Amino acid sequence: MPVRIKATEDLIPITDLRQNSARIMRRLHTERRPFVILQRGRSAAILENVQEYEKRLERLELLETVVRGLEAARKGQVLDNAQVMRRLRKIAVG
Q1: Over the chain (94 residues), what is each successive 10-residue block's mean pLDDT?
Q2: 3-state SS of 13-67?
Q3: Where are the domains of the chain?
């Protein structure tokens, strides 16, 4: 499930990031929540744990695949079970 940013805890001024980068990186890895980096009081960037970022990309790719499949189904571009099995056999045989 996606993690929501907590406005009271997850907003970090860029000067704090510069001065306390080690502490912020520890929080990033233990809490596994993204942080919003503020520059001049406005959101400028998101700082996120690499593993969480990769999971987010995987979920996005899966959702995009589902959307493409639904679009294909809507257009009638579907295969029945027998057609799928024939294609799989061709792939398996080579």
Answers
A1: 69 96 94 93 94 95 96 93 93 87
A2: EHHHHHHCHHHHHHHHHHHCCCEEEEECCEEEEEECCHHHHHHHHHHHHHHHHHH
A3: 1-48, 51-94
CATH number of 1-48: 3.40.1620.10
CA 33 to chain centre: 12
Token reading at 57? 């990309």
Q: How many CA atoms lie within 13 A of 75 on its CB side?
A: 7
pLDDT at 35: 94
- pTM, two decimal places: 0.67
pLDDT of residue 3: 66
CB atoms within 10 A of CB 24: 17
